[in-house]
Specification:
By secondary structure, this protein is of the alpha/beta class. It has one domain (4-189): TIM Barrel (Alpha-Beta Barrel), CATH 3.20.20.70. 33% of the residues lie in helices and 21% in strands. The protein has 6 helices and 9 strands, in the order H-E-H-E-E-E-H-E-H-E-H-E-E-E-H. The chain has helices at residues 4-13, 32-46, 95-102, 135-140, 154-161, 181-199; strands spanning 17-22, 51-57, 70-74, 84-90, 111-115, 143-146, 165-167, 173-175, 178-179. A 7-stranded parallel beta sheet has the order 1-2-3-4-5-6-7. Strands 8-9 form a two-stranded antiparallel sheet.
């Protein structure tokens, strides 16, 4: 999210989490002041279980607002955080190695993010990959899938990987950092019946 208005609209559409990127090279970067504004807009939804994610690369802001629920870690960021963590895993290794390495290093209340991007910026970079490769990992750990997800293929991701959730950005944008709310709505409308069907 890059504006309070976009955060509010996405949450009203039914998004379970919103992400805030703290990384100046990114077209989605928001500074500390803007983060506060977006969190203000999201606050009424957090009372109903919606979550907020701060995405960081290599460095943290001087302060992390207490309303941040998760910190999504890219690069060399380390330390203790006042929020739960999303461990980012770039899926460039075999499934067996991934499972062996991370199944023994689970962190309490952490989520995991699988992506397979070799783009210029950290993150999925809109790159589609074989989501079926993630299925066994998703069975073992609470995992988000990122990379190339759009309203047109989101059901393929859910069916093939059976993830805890999906991480979408460029696939629901009209331009970098600008959300297309028709696409957001289309994606969520496809997800909701799919989740209901899986529960039954």
């Amino acid at each position: 999210m890059t504006t309070p208005e976009s955060a509010q609209q996405c949450l009203e559409a039914g998004a379970d989490m919103i992400g805030l990127v703290f990384y100046p090279p990114s077209p989605r970067h928001v500074d500390v002041a803007k983060i506060r504004e977006i969190l203000d807009a999201a606050e009424p939804f957090r009372k109903h279980g919606r979550k907020t994610v701060l995405v960081v690369v290599d460095s943290l802001p001087d302060e992390i607002d207490s309303r941040i629920d998760f910190v999504q870690l890219h690069g060399s960021v380390s330390g203790n955080f006042p929020a739960k963590r999303i461990q980012v895993i770039k899926n460039r290794r075999t499934q067996d190695r991934l499972l062996k390495e991370f199944a023994t290093k689970t962190l309490e209340d952490s989520l995991y993010l699988l992506e397979m991007s070799q783009g210029f910026l950290p993150g999925g970079n809109g790159v589609i990959w074989n989501w079926l490769e993630a299925k066994e990992f998703c069975k073992r750990l609470p995992t988000l899938i990122a990379g190339g997800i759009t309203p047109d293929n989101v059901l393929d991701v859910i069916t093939q990987a059976e993830p805890y959730g999906i991480d979408v950005s460029s696939g629901v944008e009209s331009s970098p950092g600008v959300k297309d709310f028709n696409k957001v709505q289309q994606l969520i409308e496809k997800i909701v019946p799919s989740i209901s069907a899986q529960k039954h």
